[in-house]
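Workshop exercise sheet. Pairs work together: one partner reads the sequence aloud, the other fills in the structure field after running the prediction. Swap roles for the next sheet.
Pair: D.N. / O.F.
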Amino acid sequence: MSTKITVAGRFDCPHFHESVTIAKSLAESHPEQITYEVYQFFETQWHFYLKRTENEKKGCYYEHDPEAPLIQLNGCEYVGDHNDFAKWALFNFNYKDQNEQGLAFYHQMAKQACTKQYNNTPGRKYAFIDFKWVENEQECNSKVVFELFADIAPRTCENFFQLCQGWTCPSTQEKIGYSGSKIQRIVKGMYIQMGDIKLEKGNAKSIYGGEFADESFHVKHTEVGLLGMCRRSGLKHTNESQFYVTLGAPLDFLDNQAVVFGRVISGFDCLERFGKLAAFEECLTNEQGQPIDVELASAGKFSL
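Structure field:
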């Protein structure tokens, strides 16, 4: 009877690549007994996947280390992490890693996978925003990384991408961008809104000189962590600079109304924390009810 090995984890994790190597080697040396499949994720999507798996299968899955890959047999039997998998392969197939470089080899594989993903993925761009705020008299900061769906909404993505880097308006020569702006609204369990740029000259808040058309409603609001454009008073074709990130899903009422053009792939725990803070009139407050200003301190292109 054939055994199907499932390896799931973050592609930036060396132990994930170590586990994939074991699964591949077993499948090649025992083709009649072993098949395998691989699921690789960004940080945010990995945590979502692991949480869904825990809720579905329960038991020992709740104890799994979120920093380690998850290995299962035939879609239902829990093996464990990379160490458990290596012991299983040794016991059942006398498998021993022939790699002489040790873990350094898999660190290099993870580095190459990240470089390829961030720098050479067709139809995708990557940007970051650094958030800064003071909470309980402590200065806090966190980086959030976004994947932009440039193959689905290229004009919308380019607007966001340029505003992250800082864009100079040809007519006024004013440099505009997200750096220095603030989170302005949170609707608990639904979304967090930001990106309202303050201008000193003119009124162009997009790289297109003002409001621009809704580009695509292809991506629906079925996941947490999606990146979408805010429209002025909900009117069609009024996109400029403001955007939102979903904190809950599904949000069916936004489908075919707002353009989803990306997703958070790293640092979502920061936004999730903002969403959990007590909110007064949809503004951030601390445990004492005092307002918290969250600044988009810096932003730009993300690459390795």
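Discussion prompt: The longest helix spans residues 103-119. What would you look at next?
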